């Protein structure tokens, strides 16, 4: 007969639920002070090769709409690192509540051997009809260590996301050491100092390095790299990249793409990046996806252009990037 969905048994929190959580962090803005908890259970149906997450409720969520003193929360689940292939699953949105009850089952078709290589990310979001949804907290469950005979409902404290970042200084100088005028060529210097709180992308301590490219040039000549700093989430690089022959007009059309990678023997894993540029969406009159700098990235770029050859600096949050062709 058809496989039966199990009856989930409610269970009090025993010990420290944080011990079951991995230390993975993601790249999200901290919209709201994270608070509260979520109750859910996980189960694997062997006959169906189906992983089920039974989302019960949330309690004491943060207020996303401060004017109305409410949130419209929903729960989103995905499996990392295979997020794209397996997709994201979501509950319904519960309106005007900080204590939503869902009692919904979210399902993933996946063989058990594959599942044991994944981390389950359960996140809570406020649904904003007119703007960007607000992050209300999450829980990460490392499934390589999970006992799949345990189908009990557990309560987990929601965690804030860690903002992962890169510390950069940059300046633009002429060959005589001052800021460059509209006519003369000059040097662009990018000093990558360090990164903070980089996430594990392969379940092991990472070996980070930074790559720098001045777009639209994706040739090897344009690409420069720092050394690999082994086994750390907080690497200190102190590496300066130098690009010469720049005119002021070039800089209105260019964008410095700085990306952070985890060095692996087989292939490198992308962690996140920033793009310093004017953020106009165009380069030499052509629409380009990579001219997408955020406000903070544009601000640092503009500060550099007007700094008359002096160093300017900022700590910028890393973000996911749609990579330019040829990188």
UniProtKB/TrEMBL annotation:
Origin species: Cyprinodon variegatus (Sheepshead minnow)
An annotated GO cellular component: plasma membrane
Protein's name according to its UniProt entry: Synaptotagmin-like protein 2
CDD domains named among the record's database cross-references: C2B_SLP_1-2-3-4
Bilayer disposition of the protein: Peripheral membrane protein
GO biological process per UniProt: exocytosis
Domain C2 stretches: 34-157, 168-291
A UniProt-annotated Pfam family: C2
Coiled coil spans: none
UniProt KW keywords: Cell membrane, Exocytosis, Membrane, Phosphoprotein, Repeat
GO MF, one annotated term: neurexin family protein binding
Compartments where located: Cell membrane; Endomembrane system
């Amino acid at each position: 007969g058809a496989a039966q969905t199990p009856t989930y048994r409610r269970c009090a929190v025993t010990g420290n639920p944080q011990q079951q959580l991995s230390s993975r962090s993601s790249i999200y803005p901290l919209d709201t002070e994270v608070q509260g908890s979520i109750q859910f259970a996980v189960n694997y149906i062997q006959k169906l090769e189906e992983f089920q997450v039974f989302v019960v409720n949330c309690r004491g969520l943060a207020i996303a709409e401060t004017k109305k003193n409410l949130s419209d929360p929903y729960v989103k689940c995905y499996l990392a690192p295979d997020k794209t292939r397996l997709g994201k699953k979501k509950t319904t949105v519960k309106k005007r509540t900080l204590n939503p009850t869902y009692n919904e089952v979210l399902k993933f078709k996946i063989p058990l051997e594959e599942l044991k290589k994944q981390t389950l990310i359960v996140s809570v979001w406020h649904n904003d009809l007119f703007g960007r949804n607000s992050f209300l907290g999450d829980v990460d469950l490392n499934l390589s260590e999970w006992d799949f005979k345990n189908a009990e409902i557990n309560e987990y404290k929601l965690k804030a996301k860690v903002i992962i970042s890169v510390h950069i200084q940059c300046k633009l100088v002429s060959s005589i050491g001052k800021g460059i005028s509209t006519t003369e060529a000059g040097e662009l210097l990018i000093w990558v100092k360090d990164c903070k709180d980089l996430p594990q992308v392969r379940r092991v301590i990472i070996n980070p390095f930074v790559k720098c490219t001045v777009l639209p040039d994706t040739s090897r000549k344009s690409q420069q790299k720092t050394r690999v700093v082994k086994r750390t989430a907080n690497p200190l690089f102190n590496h300066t990249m130098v690009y010469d022959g720049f005119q002021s007009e070039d800089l209105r059309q260019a964008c410095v793409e700085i990306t952070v990678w985890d060095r692996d023997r087989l292939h490198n894993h992308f962690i996140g990046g920033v793009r310093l540029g004017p953020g106009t969406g165009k380069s030499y009159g052509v629409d380009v996806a990579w001219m997408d700098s955020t406000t903070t990235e544009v601000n640092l770029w503009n500060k550099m252009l007007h700094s008359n050859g002096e160093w300017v600096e900022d700590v910028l949050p890393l973000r996911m990037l749609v990579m330019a062709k040829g990188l």
